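Quick start: read one record
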Amino acid sequence: MKILRFDHLHLSPADFGKFNESFQKFMGYDYLMNMPMDQYGTKVAYEPFPIGVEAFQVTDTTKSVSAKVASENPGVFCLSFRVENLAEAIKEMEEKGWKMLEYIDNAPILEALFDTKADMGIYIELVETPFDDLRAMSAMMAQQ
């Protein structure tokens, strides 16, 4: 598995609204993405710069493993790393004994969440995407 870099961290703030308002005030601009993701049972606020932050509010724990995980405790629940080839990375993670909890295909962004909590105290997510700059990706997708 070739890890390219740290990509983002997943937060489950105790107060999603207050966190988002305060974080945007701190940054001086709005998140790149701030929207409900009903298919996953969450509301998500995402900002890739200067460090990727993906804040969740769980709306339905029956929708996905991510929602269940995010509902465990407030705070950081997952570190996400960019990989060159997600299929190969999944195979290697499973060979190392870490079960894949969820695979998300939001083409061209592919993500896999692994149950590494017992060993590391935190979950690990691996991400494959052709975009290094998600703001550029967002602009390109808006033009389509």
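Residues 3-143 form a domain with the 2,3-Dihydroxybiphenyl 1,2-Dioxygenase; domain 1 fold (CATH 3.10.180.10).
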